[in-house]
Amino acid sequence: MLFDTHLHTKFSADSKMSIEDAILSAKQQNIGLVLTEHLDYDFPGDDIYEFNPQQYFQEYSSYQSKTLYLGVEVGMQEHTLIQSKKFVESAPFDQVICSLHLLDGKDLFYESCYTENKHTVYLNYLNTMIKLIKQHDFANILGHVDYICRYAPYAKKDICYEEFHDTIDILWQTIIDKGIVPELNTRRFDNSNNISILLKLYERYAMLGGKYVSIGSDAHKPENIGFAFKEAYALLDKLNLQPVYFVNRQMQLSKI
After folding, report:
1. Pairing mode, if any, of strands 106-107 and 102-103?
2. Distance CA 77, CA 145 (A)
3. Mean pLDDT, range 118-130, rounded to an integer
4. What is the dihedral sign for C-alpha 236, 240, 246, 249?
5. What ranges in the chain are assigned the alpha helix state H?
6. Alpha-carbon distance 113 to 100, whole Å?
7. Is 148 helix (H, G, I), strand (E, B) or coil?
8. What is the pLDDT of residue 113?
9. What average pLDDT score do residues 9-18 get?
């Protein structure tokens, strides 16, 4: 079956979803789940994106099965690298997503990140991602490459391959060389333009030799689990890319 490899329940500061509601939503769609609660040390603002891994496993281990696994989403920052790595090693996580949520210490959600022109900001974003994923080599998955496009205030928000081709090639080659899988995040599959732009990005990944991609909804509510998975699977199938998930940090093939 297909697995939704990116979602958040009550152990994440920005979600109140119960594991029971997540399981019910997944069963209704006949998909599996890998929970990926937020770990973002030293995150600016009032929310604390941290959780107790022992409590997490104590409370959720009884739900683990061949259709539900326990993972974590690590927010990448250079000065929290060692702390994050120790956290990942402190519990038997099935899967580790590493994501970029901050740029120069600022939350990408806020306009304070976007005081310069789009090309300058996006180039900084992509180069920062390259630098940090090289350091966070314990990652199984590189989360939502297009995360910045959700919040950037520019008229054209997309990361277009034509504009950033050299840097995108470096990013893809970096994760291919390290055996890290990119995520195809369906959060922005709400219009055909976004999908066509992402198709070009992942087409280049495939051309460079990439073979595997995880599919994640980034759901924080039960109704968003599995969002646009048919469209995501169709995109990967068109490019001959294999959807995957991880169990005991080992890659597993995911199919309809």
Report:
1. antiparallel
2. 16
3. 98
4. negative
5. 19-29, 53-60, 81-89, 118-135, 161-178, 192-207, 229-238
6. 13
7. helix
8. 95
9. 98
Q: Please say whether the beta carbons of 126 and 232 come within 8 A.
A: no
So what's the pLDDT on residue 182? 98
Tokens of 197: 């732009």
The CA distance from 128 to 240, in Å, is 29
- 133-148 burial, b at 16+ Cβ within 10 Å, e below that, comes to bebbebbbbbbbbbbb
- For residue 256, what pLDDT band results from cuts at 50, 70 and 90? confident
- pTM across the whole model: 0.98
Average pLDDT over residues 44-63: 97
Give the residue-averaged pLDDT of 43-67. Answer: 97
Burial 105-132 (b: 16+ CB within 10 A, else e): eebbeeeebbeeebeebbbebbebbbeb
Distance of alpha carbon 117 from alpha carbon 15, whole angstroms? 32
With a CB cutoff of 8 Å and minimum separation 6, the contacts of 204 are: 161, 165, 168, 169, 172
What structural domains and CATH numbers belong to the chain? 3-253 (3.20.20.140)
Kindly state the percentage of the chain with pLDDT values over 90: 99
User: Which segments of 7-102 does DSSP mark as H helices, in order?
Assistant: 19-29, 53-60, 81-89
